[in-house]
Amino acid sequence: MGPDPNLITPSPVEAGATDASADPAVFGGRIRAARAERKMSLRELARRLDISAGHISQVERGLVRPSISLVYSIASELSIDMGDLFGDNAAKNTHFEGVTRTEGEERFVTRAAERRTIDLQTGVRWELLTPTTREPVDFREIVYPPGAGSDLPGAFVRHSGREYGLLLAGILHVQFDFEEYELGPGDSIAFDSTVPHRFWNGGTETVRAVWCMVDSTPGEACGF
After folding, report:
1. Taking Cα atoms as reference points, which of 127, 133, 94, 146 lies closest to residue 19?
2. Staple 174 to which of 9, 21, 28, 181, CB 3.0 to 4.6 Å?
3. What one-character DSSP code corresponds to residue 123?
4. Count of domains in the chain?
């Protein structure tokens, strides 16, 4: 049984993210529901993930946020789409700072204040940019507060699919194996997700990037 990831107490959600899916207890409850639906015990899931049952229990109860790698592994083992962890379509507010939602627009439009979000262990936040949770392409805005990264320092992520990103603000550090790059506003990137990679914000300005992944298999996640 491998060591647990570092445990980090959930932090407040950055201003502007208002959806309930940002609550780690809500996110953990979705994992627990998916596991129960598949009649898989907590201990069995922990065994497959090679971590302690106690850590999975803490994630399901919202006591700690999972690492990005752990989210990938959980979704894969439970054979669920990432959209399932963002949650179902919820009733939307009808007013957004002077903008009135028109009837039926929720089929096409996602207002900034209503994005579904997931906050992760290292401080990264995923914000879903599509009006539904089931889309053929994963489309998100990724937010890296200062010091946040795709995984713990020195750890890499890899999974199936191909990713495309566009930097909107800040400086994002990128590493593929032993190659390192810096991306600034307006820079873009495309790569095979099976290549070990990690991203992090080493500056003082929040990094924001639009990200999407194609050709993902059920249970695979997108973006960091």
Report:
1. 127
2. 181
3. S
4. 1
Residues 6+ apart with CB under 8 A from 54: 4
CATH number of the domain to which 116 belongs: 2.60.120.10
Structural domain range at position 202: 20-214
Judge whether 15 lies within some domain. Answer: no
Residue 163 located in a structural domain: yes
């007013």: which residue's tokens?
95
> Which amino acid makes up residue 100?
T
What pLDDT tens digit does each residue of the chain (224 aa) get? 443 333 333 333 343 444 444 567 778 888 999 999 999 999 999 999 999 999 999 999 989 888 878 887 888 899 887 777 776 544 444 455 556 778 888 889 988 888 888 888 889 999 999 988 878 888 999 999 999 998 777 789 887 789 999 999 999 999 998 899 999 999 999 999 889 999 999 999 999 999 998 865 544 444 44
- CB of 163 within 8 A of CB of 213? yes
Q: Is residue 6 part of a domain?
A: no
Q: Is residue 165 part of a domain?
A: yes
- Taking the C-alpha atoms of residue 136 and residue 156, their distance in angstroms, rounded to an integer, is 26
CA distances from 191 to 144, 160, 177, 181, 209 (A): 20, 11, 13, 13, 15
The pTM of the full predicted model, rounded to 2 decimals, is 0.75
